[in-house]
Amino acid sequence: MNLPEHTAPSPWHAGELHLQEHAGVAARMDMVGRKVIRDYMPDQHREFFAQLPFVVAGAVDPQGDPWAGILEGQPGFAVSPDPHTLRIAAMPDEDDPLRAGLGLGQPVGLLGIELHTRRRNRMNGRIAAWDGKRFDVAVAQSFGNCPQYIQSRDFFFSRSPSMRFAAALPERAGLDDAARALISASDTFFVASYAGHAVDVSHRGGKPGFVRVDGDVLTIPDFSGNRFFNTLGNLAANPVAGLLFIDFERGDLLQLTGRAEVILDSPEIAVFEGAERLWRVHVRRVVRRPGALALRWRFDAWSPTALATGRWPAAA
């Protein structure tokens, strides 16, 4: 039974509240959160996940490191048999570091995102059923996000998503030149974070080069967004992050984890035009997986990057 909005408990934890209070939006977000964050999936979200060719997932491995990864399949591989369940008929590859954090009873964050329509919905929960080929996630939090900062791309499959293509390169303790080059050219990445027993995975987008690379340290500007502060709130409470970068033309994946820090007050923020705050990741573990995805994407002809117009700050 769903509680009325005015009696529903606050969905925010201490880290999120800290960021909301710093931004001066805590009172408003208290009302918004009770209204838009649900413990079930509305029909619109259930239908949306069923039409996707991939979902982004976040999980935490036994070492306590969060990882973000992609689960792909022909549309219909993710279905919601009831408003409290999402069933996914796909598993990470054996060499995917995401796999170590998945299993019966484990928390997981899921992001459904459709790049060609720039729609996205989030769902966080716990794995309620698992047979090694598919798994069910029991919904804990379900909510939508606006299309802000999503780069428009059309997708196609280069091969069947059930076919393996290449193995991961050996795990590294830091970034190599190829990893730095991919990050420096990227206009999109995904980030997994967690606080307590809840995992979240989110999207970040910007102009190519919006992530600054200094050796093994990544600095990311944070611009005005929905003011939920799910990611930065998690990082404030538990300073570790897992990032996923994609070579959309080749299907290569770069997955990394490291220590995170949130910078709320610093002259350095002004270096990133329009940024309200910054966050950093000190990279500790890196996995590169060439050709891991069957999916490929190409720019929508009318996308901001394809037209080379407009400014692309990163999402908050």
Automatic annotation (TrEMBL):
Pfam families linked to this entry: PNPOx_N
Protein's recorded name: Pyridoxamine 5'-phosphate oxidase N-terminal domain-containing protein
UniProt cross-references to InterPro entries, sorted A to Z: Pyridox_Oxase_N, Split_barrel_FMN-bd
Lineage of producing organism: Bacteria, Pseudomonadati, Pseudomonadota, Betaproteobacteria, Burkholderiales
Domain (Pyridoxamine 5'-phosphate oxidase N-terminal): residue spans on this chain: 175-275
Domain of life: Bacteria
